[in-house]
Structure formats: C-alpha cells, structure tokens
Amino acid sequence: MEKPVHRIAACVLAVLAVVLFGVPATAGAHGPLRYVALGDSYSAASGVLPPDLTAPPMCLRSTANYPHVIAAATGAQLTDVTCGGADTGDYVTEQHPGVAPQLAALARDTQLVTMTIGGNDSSVFLDSILQCGAAGLSTLGAGSPCEDRYGSSFEDTIRDVTYPVLVSTLRAVRAEAPRARVAILGYPWILPRTGGCFDRMPIAEGDVPYLRSLQATLNDAIERAAARTGVTYVDMNRVSEGHDACQPLGVRWVEPVLQGTNAVIVHPNALGERGMAAQTMRVLRLG
Questions:
Q1: What is the largest CA-CA distance in the chain?
Q2: How many whole angstroms separate alpha carbon 284 and alpha carbon 182?
Q3: Which of 15, 59, 78, 248 has its CB 3.0 to 4.6 Å from that of 83, i.e. a possible disulfide?
Q4: Tens digits of per-residue pLDDT, 60-97?
C-alpha cells in the first residue's frame, strides 16, 4: 500500500506542475499532449519539403516544420494551423477564404501552444530586408543606403505598433487556452553581425549591422510581450548564432536570397526548423 506521505508528495508535485507549466505532470500517462501550433511562415516552414498536403495550399506548410518535429519527438497530438504570411490579425480573422482564424484551433483542454508571429506585422521585418536588398544593389554593396534612407523608422514601428499588438495577441491566446503552456519563439538570425555576403544576401555592407539591429529589436519586442503576458519566450539568439543565411549549406538555418535551396527566400530550411524545435523542447523541457 502506498504510504500517505508518498501520496501527499505526488499531489504536491502535480499541483506544482499545473501552476508552473500549465499542464498536468501525468499528462503523458492519460494520452498524448494536446498541442496546437500557431504562427507564420517560420512556424509553417514555408518552402521546405515535403509539403503538408492537408494544409490549405496558400499556407505553404511543411511536415518538416518545427511543430511536426516536436510532435514526433514527444508523441503529442498536433493541431497545426500555421500559415505562411500570417500576422497577428490572422489570429482573429480569416487569412484567406476558408482559412479559419488561428485562435479557433484553441480549446480549454489545449495543453501546449507554440508560435512565431510578429515578423509580418506592419510589413516591417521581412519587407525591410527586400527594401534594403534593393538599396544594396543600387550601390553594389557599398555604404549603408538603407539606413541612410529609413533611419529608425523600422525599429520605431516595431516598438510602437508591433509590441502592443503582440501583447494583446498573446493575451487572447491565453484566454482561449487557459490551461495551456504557451510559448513564442524569437526569430533565428538572418544575417551575421558584420560583413555579410553580398553575392547571396544583396545587402550593403554598412546595412548588415543595421538589419541585424532591426531583428534584435523585433526579438526584444517578442520577449517583452511574452514576459508581460506570462508566456514562455524561446530565445533563438544564442543557438542560431553562426547559422545565418551567409553560412554554407549544412550550417545555415536560414536560406539566402540567391544561391539558396528554398523557393521561399530568407526563411528557415529543414535544419533550421530542427534547430528551432530542439531549442523549444529544451526551454519547455519536453521529451
């Protein structure tokens, strides 16, 4: 017969697990973890093969995305509604005809939620790379034409517009899945600290640290929004260092504009998705 003290200890551990992690400590014993994946193309792994044939075609979702990697490693029951091009507005409205708002996938019994989101809001982050690429081509990689033209405008938009929207979005996720552990990932580095690789990422050398700072500002906004709403932030800064789009195939996590292997440029490849999955599982202590 189990001793009373053991039963008490087990109850205490179970309560602590619910309070700290939002899921029962014995969830695995009562069935697979109920896992919902939300987010944009970095969550969907847009352009990575093989495609998810169950997804709406316009979402460009891959079965090699980090949610599928996590689900395979943990035996979780995955509901994947990630969709390329999504921004925070697509959590509450249809992104495309027939593509339901992403929050509709959540339920009170959802136990785990992951996402990358925010990079498409206000068309700031990825569009800035394209705009800076055009500026870099105009100077054949010399100077800092993008910073000279746009100054602090991109970072100002992230701080003033993207950040408060992220806060409200994460609160909405927690409201729809009150028992779930919710995690939001930062974006893995796209560019190195300095130098760059103009033949693959046509960014002027002086604009490489400028865009790197912009990405740092976005990740900081995501981290601060997570802290404010009680959501777990999965920091990708350290683990993705040295895996930017300027690195060779087999090292880089993000594919470049030119000479890459992904039809969707400046997005994670399969290696990057596995790296994002590994960091998420490490932070959430899954598996």
A1: 79
A2: 10
A3: 59
A4: 999 999 999 999 999 999 999 999 999 999 999 999 99
